[in-house]
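Quick one, T. Sequence first:
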Amino acid sequence: MAAKTVTSILADVPQAPPDPILGVSDAFRADTHPDRMNLGVGAYRTEEGTPWVLPVVREAETRLLASGVDKEYLPIDGLAAFNAATARLLLGEASPALEAGRVATIQGLSGTGSLRVGAAFLAKFQPPGTVVYCSDPTWGNHFNIFGDAGMKTAKYRYFDPATIGLDFAGMMEDLGAAPPGSVIILHGCAHNPTGVDPTREQWAAVADLCASRGLLPFFDVAYQGFASGDLDADAWAPRFFAHDKGLEILVAQSYSKNLGLYAERVGALNFVLADPGAATRSLSQAKRIARAMYSNPPAHGARIVAAVVGDPALFAQWKQEMATMAGRIKSVRTQLAAELAAAAPDRDWGFVTRQIGMFSFTGLTPAQVKRMTDVHHVYMTGDGRISLAGLSAAKAGYLAAAMADSIKES
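Structure tokens:
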């Protein structure tokens, strides 16, 4: 008897496009060329090109195992010691908002999950039609996160291709035209993908504009301590908005980069509000949202963060190790800029060292990026972003030559 043909009830579901970042890694893995380079995914690598588990993380894990921690569920809002530590790390030990009880923190599934809880919260409690403004360009997942939560999204100008720097005038003009009550996504430091941050004077102007226009700043802080090597310097912008300007802000945090806890998915969502009552009520609703999404967060990564931040010796060790990571990336930036100046002296490559953090927005066109991959086996996102965390000093010359050739031939 012939088999009966069955049509799936999901036959009309369309194929989703590959993730533009993770798809780069898939293509890289399929390439066998000895000179292939993966500069797409933002994950720290050593000079030898291998992942690095921070020694301070290993030490914290050893202590946790020795303490006999159990595997019971955490509360919906996460590990209390973690929440207290992460809020202090973000806002500072002497934070007026913390002292006044105006901060509510819920542990989330790294930065992405924390943003997603925040997006669902805003979709539920902000007026219908509230628009979330993201920089142009921004981390591609921002639009997925807020769009899938049912929020309207729009772009504000940020990057100036002519200078490979900040289009501050365009940014201010677009934010100034945003309707009152709009949500503004701001990268706390080390803007992804450009590596271009506002100056402190420009941050102050943005804060004043948010205050005068009634805009809600929502900071994405994925690189605190990893960008410059200094935890306090990298938290300057959200602290300035909250403390110096007295603005209400939301902040999503991640420990994927600065503690190398990529697989542990540990982060937090913070509400810094005008009064303790609003903070308490907001936390209650964030917990209700988290309960429906994933019930409660994972414990292991949160325990590592709490152990490291809560122990003076481990905390000091962590700061040294962050400085090591940030220092290696700065060193690679300097070497790449020198190699590019030698390979293509007719162009200004100063932007490479002016940018900060893990990424460099090279200004390469899609056609040039395609040549980088097809001819030179260098894998990067189509917008020309490269992850300097994946570049070794030994390969800086090869990358510079590939970029010079791709610019010349495309």
